[in-house]
Amino acid sequence: MLPVWRTVIIGLVVVVAFNLFWLVPALDDIENRVLSHLLETAEKIEIEAKEIVINHPKNQIDEFALFALQKRRGNITFDTFDPEQIKLFLQNRSDVIEVFIIDSFGEEKARVSHEKVFAPHELRTVAKNDYFIEALSSGFSARALHIPNKAVPNILAFERVDVPDLGVFVFGVNVDIHERLEGFSREIADDEGEYVYIADDTGAIIDHYNPQRIGDSLLQMDFVKNVLDSNEIKKYTYEFGSYADPFGEYQQAVGLLFKPLNFVIVVEEGYAEAWQTWNRFLLFVVAGLGLFIFLVLVLTRSTLRAVGFSNQLIQEKERTESVIANLETGIIEYSPDFLITLLNVKAEEMLGIKKEDVLGVVIRPSIIHQNPTLAPLAQVLYPILGENVRKIRFEKGKPDIIETKITKPAELELQITTIPIHNEQHAVVRYLKVLRDVSREQAIAKSKSEFISIAAHQLRTPLSAIKWVMKLLLDQDAGPITPEQKNLLTKGYESNERMIELVTDMLDVARIEEGRFGFTFHHANLSALVQKAMDAFIVKAKEKNITLVFNKPETTHSLKIDSARIELVVQNFVDNALKYTPNNGTITVDITSAGSYVRVSVRDTGIGVPKEQAVRLFTKFFRGANAVKQQTDGSGLGLYLVKNIVMRHGGNVSVETEEGKGSVFSFTLPIDEEKIPETDKKAKESADGSSTEATL
Question: Are 119 and 196 in contact (CB under 8 A)?
Answer without folding.
Answer: no
